Amino acid sequence: MLTLLTPLARALILFLAMLGPPDPMGDSGKPSPATALLEKGSLLFKQGDTAGALRAFDAAIKADPADARPHYLKGVALERKGDAAGAMTAYRSALGRKPDFAEAHNNLGGLLLGQGDAAGAARAFEAAVRARPAYPEAYFNLGVARDAQTEKSDSKSEGKAGSKPDAVAAYREAVRLKPTEPSYRLNLGAALRRQGDLNGALAAFKESTRLAPKDALGWANLGMILADQRAYDGAAGALDRATKLKPDFALAWNRLGRVELRRGHIDAAADAQDRARKLDAKNGTFAADLCRTLIEKKDTARAVAECRAAVALDGRNPLARYELGKALVAKGDCAEARKEMERFAGLPDVKPGAKAQADEIVKSCGRQSPTPTPTQP
Fold first, then answer.
1. Same structural domain, 11 and 148
2. Looking at 155, 171, 199, which one is the last position of a domain?
3. Domain range holding 124?
4. Sign of the dihedral defined by the CA atoms of residues 202, 14, 147, 178, in that order
5. How many domains does the chain contain in total?
6. Residue 62 binned pLDDT confidence (cut-offs 50, 70, 90)
7. Other C-beta atoms within 10 Å of 310: how many?
8. CA-based nearest residue to 194, from 157, 158, 151, 251
9. What phi, psi does 25 have (nearest 5°)?
10. Interacting residues of 234 by C-beta distance below 8 A, sequence separation 6+
């Protein structure tokens, strides 16, 4: 099965609330003495004068210490400056004065997620949507945080039963509130794919490409979900479009090569995977994929070279070891092929069926061409 483009689909660019026109009324509902300073700071911020904006916001804090707005705006300015710790302190100061400050919760969540605290980020985003139920950006960010929580729990539990944060529900609510935002559809599709809902994912990716027809990422995801469903002609068309929109999109070129190989277009597959290799020379999986295609093309010498490169880049990649063993069989170097397949069989997570198949390929050495590669050993 072809791997979905989930790391890219789940956009790490969070939707953060930035600077808007200051409300002339403070949190008490009365005219605030800080308003003129906030307006000045906001203007300076928009003009790119972050230092000047910070001075204005600090002055506003002194003018009205109880007003949450200057603390929040100071946090936004500190984020631009790259001071994440200072920004978090400022957002928490704003929340201490106004606990239902949705934008402050949202931006604090973004910083927590950036520090790897997915659970803390999710709590912040949940607080943001409680404070403002019609807040699509915060729902989207909540989905991103829940995805990150799921990844962490998967890496620790290794398949153990247990409830997982529901990113799909958060993305669905973001889509409901803002149906024209393509990135919401993109992440919804990725989350649905991880839940095994291929049809739902396909619908989400199709809508993403309709809303953003020039977004290469959307087309790449659409191509991969079509490949998952073995609709290889459609997958090739979508991935080809992704590479045309973004010629340096290495992963799209690689997956296009995989799909072309499935379609029996060996030369086209080799060309696409060669492009991927040139764009990302340190990717061991790309090298192993090209090796596999070159074996099918009967370009044995180059296949061995690519597979050796794949193993050098990532010796614990089962695909690299397996394809190197196959290439050595094709070359007729049976002793080396057996050593590589033994190394392959000794890697963790290699299933017994794949080990048996590797053994059969070695036994065929000198008698016939190696059997076709399984989708994923």
1. yes
2. 155
3. 1-155
4. negative
5. 3
6. very high
7. 27
8. 151
9. -100, 135
10. 223, 226
Nearest CA to 150 among 176, 132, 171, 134? 171
Per-residue pLDDT for 78 more than 90? Answer: yes
Q: What is the average pLDDT across 10-35? A: 54
pLDDT of residue 22: 54
Same structural domain, 102 and 242: no
In a domain, 194, yes or no: yes
In SS3 terms, 176-189 reads as HHCCCCHHHHHHHH
> Of 122, 139, 133, 124, nearest to 188 (Cα)?
139
Q: Which two tokens stand for residue 126?
A: 């949940």
pLDDT tens digits, one per residue of 145-164: 999 998 877 655 544 434 46
- CA-closest candidate to residue 67, choices 93, 88, 42: 93
> Is 24 within a domain?
yes
Looking at the fold, whether 33 and 109 belong to one and the same domain comes out as yes
- Indicate the pLDDT class of residue 315, thresholds 50, 70 and 90: confident
Name the average pLDDT for the chain: 87
**Pick from 104, 121, 155: which residue ends a domain?**
155
DSSP class of 297: T
